[in-house]
Amino acid sequence: MDMDGLEERMLTLRREIRVASAAGDHARVRSLRAELRQVERTWEEAINPPPAPPAPVREHVHQALTLLGVPAAAKTIVAVDESFFSGTITNAKLTSLRRDEERSFRSSPNSRPYYLCAALSAERLSPVRGVLAVSTWPLHRRIIGPLSPRTDLLTSTIRIAEHLQRLTRAGESPLGGFRLLTAMAQNIPGAVADFGPADPDRVITAARAELAVHEEKDQQHRKAVAERAASQLAEVNQLFGAGLRTASTA
């Protein structure tokens, strides 16, 4: 909604509040006032957009998510950055990043090549707390259904293992990367022998075997929800969620 639309909506809400108050409809008054406060906040953010987050932070988060290929929690993004890239991302830097990205999009839609947006709960199409995605990904990849955390773990583990294979062929052997792969592979049956370091080939074989069991059902569900979201939600809500409340990652 543009500035004129926001201002018109605020005027309408104030009129409706007066009417509801005169009629003694206290429940509606409370609901209208809550909506008015939200619209007023959106108007304030649009007229006074916050400063953009430091470019290196956005770029490093984008780099980590691109390697993983799936929505990821902050601790995973930090671990990938530490293992393969600069190691400059911290949880503190990620705390307000998604909110800043949403404000930037609302104030100037699609002015950036990509946005770091939210993963969306399949149940409510609300943002999943602490889980980031990339706006350029297809909508179904940003949906989190019942099987998605597992399939995303398997997918991201395969991608990390494949990246380590490429680095090894190039003569590199990042110890941090192998530690990360080992930690991720511990949750995949048959991926790690005893408690030694993970072998990328073995990890890929084990992860693909389990992924074959769950992936088709998960993809069907995600795509069905994505179709519903695309038909019901405005673009900003497709990126950052439909509700004010966030869904638990559980």
TrEMBL record:
Lineage of the organism: Bacteria, Bacillati, Actinomycetota, Actinomycetes, Streptosporangiales
Domain of life: Bacteria
Name recorded for this polypeptide: Uncharacterized protein
